[in-house]
UniProtKB/TrEMBL annotation:
The keyword Cell membrane applies. Its main location: membrane. It holds the Pfam family SdiA-regulated. Keywords: Cell membrane, Membrane. This is SdiA-regulated protein. The keyword Metal-binding does not apply. InterPro entries: WD40/YVTN_repeat-like_dom_sf, YjiK/CarP. GO terms for cellular component: plasma membrane. It is found in: Cell membrane.
Amino acid sequence: MQRLIKLLLPLFILNSCHQTVEKDTKLIQEGNIIHEEIRELEFVEIRQLGNSYNQRFDLSGICFGPENSIWAVADKSHNTAIYQLDWAKDETTWEIISQIDLEISDSRIDFEALDYADSIFYISNEVDQSFFTYNLQSKKLEKVTPPYLEADIHPNNWKMNTGLEGLAIDSKNNIAYLGKEREPRMIYTFDRSKNKIIEAYDFPHTHSNDIGDLKYENNFLYVLERNGNYITKIDLETQTVVDKLSYRSVCSAPEGKLFDAKYGMAEALLLSENEIWIGLDNNADSVTDFAKEKYKLKGNKPAIIRFKRPLGF
């Protein structure tokens, strides 16, 4: 009998493991996604900032503005502006073609995210966990500090560089989604009409522990998981992961990375109908030999990667 048990036990364990894997692969909609099930984004091209801006530019947020113009922010204290970008004709770079100076006197500035809706830009400031609004029509700049303490949230206890890394606007419902980067990673739902944080949660069963950026579309929140090289789609009604895409094959391929950094560098997410753009904040690090050879990158300028957006994502 004991011999029979010994013979059958490995088969039982193998069968149990097999059933677990099958269960996980069927639970993608609940967030239990194993690595093999995650689709890779289809690469289109990668470009770096050209010679239009001579200071250090650590790209940290990107969005569409009026008439599908493209705008960005950077996270150094001298970058107190919103910058308009353009795809250069040389087919290798993008350039800064104009900027809106926000005339902020406070030197404690760390812009980490950018969004736009109804003639208003929204810019997160990680230094004090606030965000700014800039109205293009009135030229009025306002600072918004959510009432964290009323929701028993204590930003003063957060470690440096673990604060608001993502900001996404649902203008129809006057909601701002605020993404706390890590330690712990959190999403805060801020109802602007009530001036109240109405939800605070993390989303489980993911392969990363951080947030690089957020974007909102049609009651879905798209999360840039920087350290995992993923874009995760969250159903806001159920607060569960319903889909996930990877850009690992470009940024962290087995044969080499674009920049030689310990952590992920993706900090800016842009969604259009047919494309997904990811902006890299390379912290002025130089590109790797792999990036030079495969993608013809050079120097230490930030990069934007274009991917095709799968139907239904």
